[in-house]
Design a protein that fits this description.
The protein is mainly α. It has a domain of 117 residues. Helices cover 83% and strands 0% of the residues. The protein is globular.
């Protein structure tokens, strides 16, 4: 009557609902990020919970296994904090006190009778000039970083909330899954949702466990090599590199730059450390990461670069951290939808139809 097509109106309402959903996600992005971290934390602990649930005497709930898992977690974190955390804090304080003096000495021109002729000397002189000229900027950036750390300390409530939310994910995750599937009528759509949930569970489990293992491998390799070459602040730099492994691409690059700067101003073997960083990155990207990640995170490097930079623009560090799993989940959804559409076409094709 009014010239409105019902199909066009349905598509328009779908677009409006999608835009509204995206807007709501942006509004509650902080809370959503906390729940995503809790979900990843639950996937990290789920193997231990399942193991303890099988070992402990039979119980109607997983609560005893969950309780013992958290006790073990607190004990491990306390031990790590005592053995490594105290040394990291000590070396960080020592570096912050000596950094102005080291930068000032780095800024002084190299006393030499002749101009540098080798490529190595030219690179070192160029780096010394640039870092020395910007020493005040580096100190100001460190000061801002310290203030930022104090600001983040006000959000330590999330450190308590994340394990609590993860506890409920571990305890009632299967119930939430069943209730979600019950909302979808029996048939092809429920089967598709069941497959998507299973694939997403496997993907998130592999991803977060791989990140933790890669972080531990980085800390171990860096600390051993830095101790061998006699680099100062070994534990601090290794812990920084391990922590930044959780940020794709930009994290390892930032850690490498910081390590080289500290090695340069403290008189460390810059060339040997640079060779080690490049060799370890190749080994991790082509050996460790594919082994730990397994199948499910097969993304083209260009897509990874786009996701990392786009995630950083949209959500900062949180967006960068979530870019890889979001892209991998989108890939899984696309493949399942395409497979389901092909299957539906094959089923609805009339029998006996000849294809030319």
């Amino acid at each position: 009557m009014l010239g409105l097509d019902r199909r066009a109106a349905r598509y328009a309402w779908t677009i409006v609902l999608v835009v509204l959903a995206l807007w709501l996600v942006y509004v509650v992005r902080t809370t959503l990020f906390v729940f995503i971290l809790a979900l990843l934390f639950a996937h990290l602990l789920s193997p231990l919970v399942d193991f303890l649930d099988r070992v402990l005497p039979s119980s109607r709930t997983r609560t005893p296994a969950l309780g013992l898992t958290y006790v073990i977690l607190v004990a491990v974190l306390t031990l790590v904090g005592i053995q490594i955390g105290t040394r990291v804090v000590e070396q960080a304080n020592n570096l912050s006190q000596k950094l102005p003096q080291m930068l000032a000495s780095w800024e002084k021109p190299r006393q030499a009778t002749a101009a540098p002729t080798s490529l190595k000397d030219q690179i070192l002189d160029k780096a010394r000039t640039e870092i020395g000229a910007r020493s005040s900027d580096i100190l100001a950036a460190l000061s801002r970083a310290g203030l930022k750390a104090l600001t983040v300390a006000g959000d330590l409530i999330y450190v308590v909330i994340i394990p609590i939310v993860a506890f409920f994910f571990l305890k009632d995750g299967h119930l939430l899954r069943d209730q979600l599937l019950e909302m979808i009528p029996q048939g092809q759509h429920r089967a598709l949702m069941d497959e998507l949930l299973t694939e997403a569970h496997l993907l998130l489990s592999r991803y977060i466990r791989a990140l933790v293992l890669l972080s531990l491998a980085t800390f171990t390799a860096y600390s051993i090599f830095f101790a061998i070459v006699g680099l100062s602040y070994t534990i601090l730099l290794a812990a920084l590199a391990a922590l930044l492994e959780f940020i794709p691409l930009l994290g390892p690059l930032t850690a490498g730059i910081v390590i080289l700067i500290v090695a340069g101003v403290s008189g460390g073997p810059v060339a040997a450390i640079l060779i080690f960083l490049l060799a370890y990155r190749i080994f991790q990207d082509y050996v460790l990461s594919p082994y730990f990640m397994g199948q499910g995170v097969e993304l083209h490097p260009l897509l990874v670069l786009f996701g990392v930079f786009a995630g950083g623009e949209l959500g900062g560090i949180a967006g960068t951290f979530l870019s890889i799993p979001v892209l991998a989940l989108a890939r899984i959804i696309f493949l399942h939808l395409r497979r389901s559409r092909r299957h539906f076409r094959n089923v609805t094709t009339p029998a006996g139809t000849l294809q030319s």
